[in-house]
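Exercise 7.
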Amino acid sequence: MSAHDFSFTTGTGQLLHLADFKGRPVLVVNTASECGYTPQYAGLQQLWQRYRGRGLVVVGIPSNDFGNQEPGSEKTIKEFCTTRYGVDFPMTAKQTVSGANAHPFYRWIVEQTGDAGAPRWNFHKYLIGPDGELVDMWPSRIEPMAPDIINAIEKLLATA
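Solution. The predicted structure, written as tokens, is:
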């Protein structure tokens, strides 16, 4: 299996197939609107704007798993993200990202990495390579524009 085997439902009810991004690096991030890390939406949007022309895809996965920090409806989440942060990268509907009921993508991550790879809070980042394999991951405290993330993305874009 690879990340390309998974799909998410968007806030509008459409399917977002990770397989549609074969050949491109994808940064998958579980998000929340009422979190201390919520300002990272700005950095995620900046990454998306800087690298989408070269193939990077950023996917936001709203989740209410940690501290009930994403209580809103799909419409409320979309309005918040677009109005406050100008987000126009792909976003899914709210998902469970931790525990036994986690979305299959997140269970796959744990299968690949062990429990250490499970998101511990909002804004955990996973970089998926063009081949669908997990390349790297960063905890919530690491900003989207951190040098480690930029370097990993640029390395993948150079080989994609």
